[in-house]
Amino acid sequence: MIAIEKLKAQLEQRLVELGAAVEQREADFSEPLDADFSEQANQLEDLETSEAMEAAHIQEGRQIRAALQRIADGSYGLCANCGAKIAPARLEALPTATLCINCAP
Ligand SMILES: [Zn+2]
Q1: Which H/E stretch holds residue 27?
Q2: Which of 50, 52, 58, 71 could form a disulfide with 76 if both were Cys (CB 3.0 to 4.6 A apart)?
Q3: How many whole angstroms separate alpha carbon 2 and alpha carbon 9?
Q4: How many CB atoms lie within 10 A of CB 4?
Q5: 37-73 vs 4-28: helix axis angle to the nearest 10?
Q6: How far is CA 92 from CA 21, 26, 48, 54, 96, in A?
Q7: SS3 28
Q8: 82-94 tens-digit pLDDT
Q9: Residue 64 Cα to ligand 1 middle (Å)
Q10: Ligand 1 centroid to 25 CA: how many Å?
Q11: In this predicted model, what pLDDT tens digit does every residue of 44-66 receive, in sequence order?
């Protein structure tokens, strides 16, 4: 049996970190573009990388919130497809897993 409370604390902590990362990004890119053209290109490149990262963060945040919801309603650790218990080792490696090893793509 894995320690749900510990896992929950970890997920909540991660959610806080993700929120901070998104806020930091907004602060970074609220500055106007540099007058120098090559510097502008760099800034736009950074912006693209950062947008891809933000999308990943938002996605991860959603999965974490869903996992916390499952912890709250008692369905955490059960496969969303077949209802079997997800192996503790799998949940430790991937706390937001919703499928057991047999059902995972
Ligand atoms: Zn399954």
Answers
A1: helix 4-28
A2: 71
A3: 13
A4: 13
A5: 160
A6: 24, 32, 32, 24, 9
A7: helix
A8: 999 999 999 989 9
A9: 19
A10: 37
A11: 888 888 888 889 999 999 999 99
Centre of ligand 1 from the C-alpha of residue 77, in Å = 11
CA of 7 to the centre of ligand 1 (A): 21
- Residue 85 φ then ψ, to 5°: -70, 135
Contacts of 89-98 with C-beta under 8 Å, sequence gap 24+, read: 91/2, 91/7, 92/2, 95/7, 95/10, 95/11, 95/64, 95/67, 96/11, 96/60, 96/63, 96/64, 96/66, 96/67, 98/66, 98/67, 98/70
Nearest 5°: CA angle at 66, between 61 and 71? 125
State the DSSP H helix or E strand holding residue 18, giving kind and residue range, or none if neither. Answer: helix 4-28
For the whole prediction, is pTM greater than 0.85? no
